[in-house]
Design brief:
By secondary structure, the chain is an alpha+beta fold. Helix content is about 35%, strand content about 20%. It is globular and about 70 Å long. It starts with a helix and ends with a helix. It binds flavin-adenine dinucleotide (FAD).
Length: about 550
């Protein structure tokens, strides 16, 4: 795989059929679909892949049980169908997760209503949910989930949806696009569009945010897949002014598992406003989410505030009274912006706004896609490429593209996985590495990279120092840094510590102790001078500071 710098060099060499702006899940999905159909594709992302919302979601591939209340049956049907497809094409990244939904006597929803919802949910998945639901009484709930307060509880439906690593789902979609011929250029920001005599877009000016270089990329069709930035990119055009998206901020807080040892994703109504909030088991950690508040400008950084954190802790402490959490227990946070469709009706709150998506072709010919969910990205992407192919056919006379088959072709980490699945591959890898790597390291490699873990083992064969842990007690190893640079477009220390691995969120010190080592490995591979090395390390420390800014508010509280 070319590195980020090599991809930049390829960019703009020829006129592409599609230029995709934005490397979140939608941009990556569109690039994958289009490249697999045989189109010439370039994708440009202003920072790292999944830097935006697509690394800051609740990390669920789900039908969206709560959308049944909004009668969004079409969306739920589409989501549960996509859940099944993603389980098949990316079993290393999308895994069944059990959910429990305790229902209380004085709650907004009765048990019969929730149970009916469960049946409907399963019916919409054509009864192909990972496992069928059942309702637990207090005693049974205490056995499987002892920390939940069952006072006033009338029953607790247990059902299955899926969990994912959102940033890596994005990355693997982009990697597959690149394998099919797409140019994927990160740290490349579109600053301006250029138009032909007919007023239609024909090129974009792109700024390399790492080197300051600029180039013009010519394209037959341009797609705006910039999520929360959709309107900002549309506004680069003379005539697109009315907003297509509204943004809503969602915050999550991470604590060590021993502080909140849940085994299922527990969903409960928040004591203040009855919004569903959840605690999710996440390996050695648990995260709590999420808030849903309207948010204005996308300029500047999006971060948790003290009131966001207190809101989440309040809910957790109400439902898990024997595991009271304090602000000090929070080891990290993330905040993302939902790119929701701007509502046509006034007065709707962010939670009430539809999660459907919209594809619009603007007066200058730019196709914008907005709304939707991580879960439905593959289907949405295919729809966008259909619109793009129609434009290519109608306006440029280009036709005859093959099928993309993104519903059956596995993502790279599942490519060639034997019928025994990931578990068999894990066992086999544990046996091969028995003498050299400890079991937690091997299982982390297999669950993060799928079959691509074998490539990392080749790195270690060539240089055994790469088998060392980056942080004592954590499973990530030095070889992952080299692999991220050479095979996964990582170009900065933050790319590696935040998006390629989740060290930033999971380590009790947010990876600060690994910064020098990561900088040194990346610096050697990418020939950074001393100045660049210290800049990289300090940029990462700044990202950590930003995620902890809410703590500064405590003194003024
Ligand atoms: P983004 O991921 O934001 O990607 C847009 C990209 O465009 C960014 O990376 C940005 O850097 C880039 N960009 C912007 N301007 C430019 C430019 N000028 N040039 C180049 N690049 C540019 N969905 C689910 O299915 N399950 C969930 O559990 C879930 N939970 C969520 C929880 C929260 C708190 C939030 C906020 C969302 C959640 N979602 C969930 C929704 C889902 O995350 C989003 O719908 C999805 O990630 C949006 O992806 P995107 O590609 O449209 O946008």
């Amino acid at each position: 795989m070319p590195t980020q710098a090599e991809m930049w060099n390829h960019l703009g060499h020829e006129t592409v059929d599609l230029l995709i702006v934005g490397g979140g899940i939608n941009g990556a999905g569109i690039a994958r679909d289009a490249a697999r159909r045989g189109l010439k594709v370039a994708l440009v992302e202003m920072r790292d892949l999944a830097y935006g919302t697509s690394s800051r979601s609740s990390k669920m591939v789900h039908g969206g049980l709560r959308y049944l209340e909004q009668f969004a049956f079409g969306l739920v049907f589409e989501s549960v169908s996509e859940r099944r497809i993603l389980l098949n094409i990316a079993p290393h990244l999308v895994r069944p997760l059990p959910y429990i939904f305790p229902v209380f006597k004085d709650g907004k929803r009765g048990l019969w209503m929730v149970s009916l919802g469960m049946w409907l949910y399963e019916a919409l998945s054509l009864f192909r949910s990972p496992i069928r639901h059942k309702t637990l009484k207090a005693k049974a709930l205490n056995e499987v989930e002892p920390i939940v307060d069952t006072k006033g509880m009338v029953g607790a439906p247990l059902y299955y949806d899926c969990a994912t690593d959102d940033a890596r789902l994005t990355l693997e979609s982009a990697l597959d696009a690149a394998s099919a011929g797409a140019v994927v250029s990160t740290w490349s920001k579109v600053t301006k569009f250029e138009y032909g005599d007919d007023g239609r877009v024909r090129a974009a000016r792109v700024l390399n945010q790492l080197t300051g270089e600029e180039k013009v990329v010519h394209a037959k069709v341009v797609i705006n897949a910039t999520g929360p930035w959709t309107d900002k990119v549309r506004e680069l055009n003379p005539s697109e002014k009315s907003p297509m998206v509204m943004r809503s901020k969602g915050v999550h807080a991470v604590v060590q598992k021993e502080k909140l040892p849940v085994n299922h994703c527990i969903i409960c109504p928040h004591p203040d406003d009855a919004r569903g909030v959840f605690a999710v088991p996440w390996g050695d950690q648990t995260y709590i989410g999420t808030t849903d508040t309207e948010y204005g400008s996308v300029d500047g950084h999006v971060a948790a505030t003290l009131s966001d954190i207190d809101y989440l802790l309040e809910a957790s402490n109400a439902y898990f009274p024997d595991h009271q959490l304090s602000r000090d227990d929070v080891i990290s946070t993330w905040a993302g912006l939902r790119p929701l469709l701007a509502p046509e009706t006034d007065g709707l709150t962010a939670s009430q706004v539809s999660r459907e998506h919209k594809i619009e072709v603007g007066p200058e010919g730019i196709i914008s896609v907005a709304g939707g969910k991580l879960t439905t990205y593959r289907k949405m992407s295919a729809e966008v490429v259909d619109v793009a192919c129609q434009e290519l056919e109608d306006r440029q006379g280009v036709r005859g593209f093959g099928p993309a088959k993104t519903d059956v072709v596995p993502l790279p980490g599942a490519s060639g996985l034997s019928s025994g699945g990931l578990e068999a591959f894990l066992q086999q890898t544990q046996q091969t590495c028995g003498g050299t790597l400890e079991p937690d390291i091997v299982s982390n490699l297999v669950y993060v990279y799928g079959v691509r873990a074998a490539r990392i083992l080749e790195y270690i064969e060539k240089d055994t120092t790469l088998a060392q842990r980056l942080i004592e007690g954590r499973p990530e190893i030095r070889a992952q840094v080299a692999f991220a640079v050479e095979e996964e477009f990582a170009a900065t220390v933050t790319d590696f510590l935040i998006q390629r691995t989740q060290i930033f969120y999971r380590d009790s010190d947010q990876g600060l102790s690994a910064v020098d080592d990561v900088t040194s490995i990346m610096g050697d591979l990418l020939h950074w001078d001393e100045e660049r090395r210290s800049l990289e390390a300090s940029r990462y420390r700044k990202d950590v500071d930003v995620s902890r800014e809410w703590r500064l508010e405590i003194n003024n509280d």
